[in-house]
Structure formats: C-alpha cells, structure tokens
Amino acid sequence: MTGEAEPRRRREGGRGRRKADGHLPQLPWRAVTNPYAPMEVLSADQVEAIHLTSLRILEELGLELMSAPARALMRAAGASVDEATGTVRVDRGLVAQALSTAPATFTLTPRNPARQVILGGNHINFGLVAGPPNVHDRERGRRPGNLRDYCDFIRLAHHFNAIHLIGNQVCAPVELPANSRHLDTYRANLLYSDLAYHCTAIGAGRALDGIRMMAIARGVSLEQMAQHPGVMTIISVNSPRRFDEAMADGLVAMASHGQPVVITPFTLMGAMAPVSLAAALAQQNAEALFGVVLAQAARVGAPVMYGAFTSNVDLRSGAPAFGTPENAKANVASGQLARRYRLPYRTSNASASNAADAQGAYETEMALWGAVLGHANLIYHAAGWQEGGLTASFEKLVLDVEMLQLMMEFLRPVVVDEAELGFEAIRGVHTGGHFFGEPHTMERYEHAFYQPLVSNWQNYENWEIAGALDATARATDIWKRALAEYEEPPLDPGIREALDDYVARRREEIGAGEP
Fold first, then answer.
1. 3-state secondary structure of 379
2. Could you tell me the pLDDT band of residue 7, with boundaries at 50, 70 and 90?
3. pTM (two decimals)
4. Are 171 and 146 in contact (CB under 8 A)?
C-alpha cells in the first residue's frame, strides 16, 4: 500500500500565504525567531554543579552502549570500554573535544528550498507529533494507526503554516509490515508535503532509506546531502544510562552521512531518573553529552542537537505526567545547559490528557511556555500529541496550531516608531471618543490583530444560535475544512517515479532479509 487509494487533492501548490475569503484564516509561512532574552531558573553556579555531576556520571559510572561497532568507535576516540558489560566511560577531555567540533547552528533543506529551517541561535521551529500507535478524531473515535490517517496528517502538516517539520511516523500504519512501513511513511512525507522530515533511526537501514529518499526528492547525491542535510532523527536514550543497539547504530548511520541527530534522554523523574529535578537534569545532561561524543566519533563536525524530555510521574500510580510545573522548569533549565555547550536545543510540548479538552490545552500551554522561555530551537510533538504520546489527535492538532500561532504572534517584536506611537491619532480623537473610524485604525484594520483559527468571539446569544459549539467541536470542522482546502505540492513526475522504484526495490530487499 502506498496511499494512492486516498482521494486526490488539488495540486496547484500555494503554501505560505494568508488564505482568501472563505478559506481558513492562518498565518503565512515564515521563519520564527525568539527576540526576547531567555529565562533562567538556574544560577551560573547551579548550571556548573549540574555540569560537573554529569562529568562524574560519565567518568565514574559510564553508560551501557549495546552496539559493538559503536563501542569500537568510542574506543578509537579515546573512551574506556568494558566489553564484558558494554559499559563505556568518557573523560571530560573527550567531552570538551566533541563539543568543540559540534556546530552551534545547522540548516535542514527539504525538497522545497523555500521551506528550509534553521536549528540554532534564536530560531524556533515546531514539529508534528511523532510516534503514537493510535489515532483519534471525534467522529470516528480511537483506532490503530493506519496509512490513510497518516497521509491525512501529513496533508494537514503541509497545509498549516505553523508546522515546520514532520516527525517520526505521526501514527504507525500498523496494517503494513513493521520492517518496511517506514518506506511508505517516507514516501507519504515526500509526496504530500515539501517539508523536512524525521528519519526512523531504529537501526542503520531505516535511517539510510530516509536519507536516500530525500536525496532522490532533491535530485542530489549523498555527498551533497552530507554537506546540506535534509533529514534528521531523534535518538531516544533508554534512561537510565543505556543506548540500545538499534538506536546507537541509527545514530552512527545518520551522523556518518552528515545528517543531524537529536540526542534525547527520556528522563521521567521518579521512574527513569531520580525524583529531584537537579539529579534528573544531571543524568539527562550526561546521557546527552555521551550522544554528542558518539556522533563526533562517527563524523567530526556532524550536526547534533541537545535534546531534553524531562518530566515527572505520578508517584501514586507511576503514570507519566506532562505539562507540569516540574516539566516547564526542566524545559527552561535544559535550555541553559544547551547554551552552555553552544548546541541547538530540542524539547517538547506535551500533555497526559486522554482527550482534546481543557486539560490537554493547559498542560500543552504550560510545556510550550517553558520551551519558548528556555529558547528551544525545535519544539517536537508541537501539534497533535494526546494521551501521553499514545494517540495522534486530529482535533488536538488544530487546537495546538492555534496555540502555536498565538506564540508566533507573541514572538513578533514590538515596533515603536513615529507611525506606531500614533500621536496624531490620539490628537484627532476628542476626549471620551473612540478610534474605530480614525485613519490610524483604518490603515491597519486588516492586519492590526491576530485573527484566530479556533477561538470564537461571538456573544453568548449568537454563539448559541450558531450551535453552541465548544473549541473541540469547532476543531473537528476545521481539520475537515483544511483537508478540503489542501493543495498537494508539485513534484516532478520523474522524481515521483524514482521514489516509487526505490520503495519497490527496497521492499523486495527487506523481504529477502537484507537490512
């Protein structure tokens, strides 16, 4: 299955403009930057204490590295390797050397160069939810992930300008063979959007397929891709202190081909990390730095990103919790650590809510503020995350896009000049008057304020007459309208054929047992 059974959409292109009358209002595509000073919840001394504890973890305790080839790379780089246990210890000199060669900023170039994204500095990018095995909407309910829904999520990611990158399998198409479904999802990413995407790095083979398919779509060689990356991956550390074989091999494959790797420990306080925030940050930091060293051992100068996913569990039940005060503080503090090492920074906004409801909104917004105040360069799972990451929700995606657009407008710098100060407008309105008809107002009428995607500003009587729909119900209508408005980005027929040929060939090879 390749997704061809889905109804065909318009193919005229046309991303990155404010929609005409009758279409959903949204902000145009743009690079988003954070012009404000980053918040700091840790003092300089506290950051240094966490750093030094991380070095002790690396030097005295080490991490288990389950891949033999990866251990060989680390040994060659100067790490201490215990083959009997798989434990690798890294001294502070090796950490410093790796940090000196990791770039502070890098760019991802997808098949449409106009959709480049910059990771680092004051740039901030929002990614589609990634990884859930299930999908949900209000009309069809909760169901296993499938390719049809996957393709519609990719269409929505392309349609909504607030989403800059596609994550790893927005929902798993479980009806397809597990060992080759990544080919179908990469193909959908490339056909139904023109955005950069995340490669699955469970082993080298899946990672290499993602790299090669983006190279085909761009019409470039693997060597050119190494110089100008187009895909990335998230390397999830099996906290505490373990890199499994598949993740390590995926990291090495990506880094050796010059594609960015995002090292992300999954440190839930009270479960996979100590219960105190300082200790959890120290463990997270050690695991992230270990990944940086491995990436630089695979290829000096390979782009790498400091990833953070520190939150807490409910100690009464063991259930993961997100969007908590602890999670928000960890998002800010992790940004301080990433800046200490001059590395781009990835974190997430997330929620434990089982529905696209008020809990889902306020937990997501709490985490989102922590990420923005912490100067994240990539906010992963930014649109569509539900049920602690077990479900991709159509309604939640729409509600999240509204929150992302609100944040994008908040991040616009305030302009203070003669025209904006409006002294003549103030002079022209008598005491106790109003500014509705003032030229200063009329000149700015269309774009003075943010036009919401979901929010309803009718009075109660008109809202009731219109059906008394709450935000979640309105989101259902919006995602359906967005799919109707979606325009498939143009793709050269020769490139499409080359992608189809690659998928067919690799499917046969994988079925024959090749990696």
1. strand
2. very low
3. 0.94
4. yes
